[in-house]
Every structure is written in structure tokens, then in C-alpha cells.
């Protein structure tokens, strides 16, 4: 089985995937893969340079995430072009990774699972949710961003209600519902589906 994990920025996807990893479930992080491929895939690098200029690859190598983010942040058409370049490479990388896995199910973690259309290849989706004010506080601590920057990112992502309506499972990561029992319950259900 192929399972997706999604949720808005600061919802706690990484914490949840760490718990699944501790249960022996392989996790593919689409955002990490995108960063890696933008540095290592020669065709993708050339396409990115053609679109954004050589300045996004300073110092003989790693692309400048902040510079690229500043370019695309207020230009939706450029962001779409960036996604159109990166998502196919991530999709191919994910398929190659998936074929090597032997676990009863695997997890693909992506903030924009639905927006990118990659949910169509999955058997189930888990949504991690948290109140917006809590998400903002978490991101402030983690990324040292301003509240306005965080809200701008949140408003570019799908609303929590949209994600909740589409998800097969929901994990409440609101600091009142313990996360581990929720993950364990979903894990047991996924194992039982795999045995059917």
C-alpha cells in the first residue's frame, strides 16, 4: 500500500512520520527529495538555470533556496513553472524508491500532496492538523520567520477544511490529543488493510 501524509506548514507532519519510521515504515519526504534533485539532477538544474538564472546556483553547487523563494513567492505563474519542472522529477524518484521497499506499506510525506496531483497514485491519505495559531508559533520557533511571512505561506496552501474532507485518516496534533496513540491506531488499520 502507498499512503500519503499531508497537512499545512507547522501542522507536525515530521513528528508523525518519525513515529511511523520508528514502527519500521519507510517514509519518502517529497520536499527533501525536491531539494536533493534540484542539486543533483543535471537536466533539472539546467532547466532551473534557464528559467531563473545562474544566480540560484552560487558557489559551485547547492541552489540558493532563499533566493529562489524570493523570486517565486509573489509570482504565482513562476511558482507554477517551478512546480512543473520539479514535480515530474520527484515523481520519478519516488517510483524508483517505492519499487525497492518491502514493508507492508510506505508513506509519502508532502505538504502539497493534493495541489501537486500526486494523491491520485496513493491508496490512502493521512492529514495532520493543528490550529493555525499553534502552527504559527511552531514555525516562528523552528524557522525564525515573521508572523506575516508565515501567514502568507499558510494562505498559499489549501485550507485545513479542504484537506480534512479528502483525507482517509486525520491526526489531531493540537497539544491536547496525544499523537502516538493516533499513529498506532492508524498503523494497525493499515496493516489490516494490507492483509485483506
Structural class: alpha/beta
Rg from Cα: 17 Å
Can you tell me the residue ranges where pLDDT is under 50 for at least 5 consecutive residues?
A: none
How many separate domains make up the residues? 2
Helix content: 55-70%
Give the overall average pLDDT. Answer: 90
Main sheet: which strands, in order across?
A: 2-3-1-4-5
Separation of the first and last Cα atoms: 11 Å
Assembly category: single chain
CATH topology of the largest domain: Rossmann fold
| Gross geometry | globular
> For this structure, what is the CATH class of the largest domain?
Alpha Beta
CATH architecture of the largest domain: 3-Layer(aba) Sandwich
Number of strands: 5
Describe this structure in words.
Helix 2 packs across helix 3 and helix 3 runs antiparallel to helix 5. The protein has two domains: 118 residues, Rossmann fold, CATH 3.40.50; 70 residues, Rossmann fold (3-Layer(aba) Sandwich). The chain is globular and about 50 Å long. It contains nine helices and five strands. It is α/β, with parallel strands linked by helices and 196 residues long. 56% of the residues lie in helices and 11% in strands. The protein starts with a strand and ends with a helix.
Amino acid at each position: 500500500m502507498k499512503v500519503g501524509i499531508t497537512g499545512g506548514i507547522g501542522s507536525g507532519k515530521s513528528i508523525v512520520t518519525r513515529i511511523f519510521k520508528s514502527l519500521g515504515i519507510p517514509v519518502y519526504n517529497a520536499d527533501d527529495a525536491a531539494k536533493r534533485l534540484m542539486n543533483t539532477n543535471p537536466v533539472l538544474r539546467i532547466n532551473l538555470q534557464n528559467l531563473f538564472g545562474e544566480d540560484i546556483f552560487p558557489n559551485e553547487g547547492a541552489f540558493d533556496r532563499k533566493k529562489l523563494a524570493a523570486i517565486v513567492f509573489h509570482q504565482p505563474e513562476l511558482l507554477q513553472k517551478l512546480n512543473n519542472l520539479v514535480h515530474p522529477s520527484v515523481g520519478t524518484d519516488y517510483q524508483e524508491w517505492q519499487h525497492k521497499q518491502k514493508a507492508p506499506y510506505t508513506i509519502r510525506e508532502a505538504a502539497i500532496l493534493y495541489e501537486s496531483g500526486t494523491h491520485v497514485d496513493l491508496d490512502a491519505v493521512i492529514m495532520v492538523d493543528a490550529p493555525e495559531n499553534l502552527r504559527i508559533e511552531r514555525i516562528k520557533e523552528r524557522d525564525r520567520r515573521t508572523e506575516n511571512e508565515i501567514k502568507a505561506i499558510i494562505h498559499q496552501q489549501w485550507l485545513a477544511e479542504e484537506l480534512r474532507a479528502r483525507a482517509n485518516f486525520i491526526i489531531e496534533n493540537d497539544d491536547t490529543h496525544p499523537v502516538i496513540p493516533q499513529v498506532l491506531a492508524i498503523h494497525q488499520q493499515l496493516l489490516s488493510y494490507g492483509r485483506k
